[in-house]
Amino acid sequence: MPTVAITGAGSGLGRALAKQYAHHGYKVYLLGRIGKKLHMVQHEILEDGGNAEVVLCDVQEYASVSIAFQQIGELDVFINNAGIGIFGAVEDYSLEEIEKTLNTNVKGTILTVRSALPLIRESKGRMLTIISTAGLRGKVNESIYCASKYAVRGFTESLQKEWEHESFSITAVYMGGMNTPFWDKTSHINNPNKFKGPEVVAKQIFEEDDGRKEIFIDK
């Protein structure tokens, strides 16, 4: 049975990806900080006849990430999905908000990719980094979020260069806004219901997960 590990698997796109891969026969490792949410997703997958295991992991903390991937053991696909956003004028952000966003989105990406690498190298597998169109262009009221996603894009593209002759791959995934709880704490998006649902996005990601350099849901 092929295996996939997904960070931020307790809600939104992470949850949808977990259910999509499980539906297609993958054992899914559900990574995240909040056990209750992860166990709910696990229950949904098991109810559908799938296979899922909860692995608590705070992507901001090296020890937590290291222990999580030691628990996983063998891995065919790693999806770096965990991310948070803050929205508003740049002068209104607190230092704590800025640090949390950069630590989760940038540091978290680096730490998890480093820990997943030996497993993916061994299996000749695939990594996918969920970047979003915030890594392609600047957006009003999203300066710190865009800064973090540009950093993740640069990191991913650099690894594609480093690993171009290797037997494993890393894919950059770009999508626009989705109709998820991501927007719950901001009013600068008037109607999140106009966005694609995470299930639609997850289905396309699964279908195009073949080691290509980029997956564009939106441009």
From TrEMBL:
<dbReference type="GO" id="GO:0016491">
    <property type="term" value="F:oxidoreductase activity"/>
</dbReference>
<protein>
    <submittedName>
        <fullName>Short-chain dehydrogenase</fullName>
    </submittedName>
</protein>
<keyword id="KW-0560">Oxidoreductase</keyword>
<dbReference type="GO" id="GO:0016020">
    <property type="term" value="C:membrane"/>
</dbReference>
<dbReference type="InterPro" id="IPR002347">
    <property type="entry name" value="SDR_fam"/>
</dbReference>
<dbReference type="InterPro" id="IPR020904">
    <property type="entry name" value="Sc_DH/Rdtase_CS"/>
</dbReference>
<dbReference type="InterPro" id="IPR036291">
    <property type="entry name" value="NAD(P)-bd_dom_sf"/>
</dbReference>
<comment type="similarity">
    <text>Belongs to the short-chain dehydrogenases/reductases (SDR) family.</text>
</comment>
<dbReference type="Pfam" id="PF00106">
    <property type="entry name" value="adh_short"/>
</dbReference>
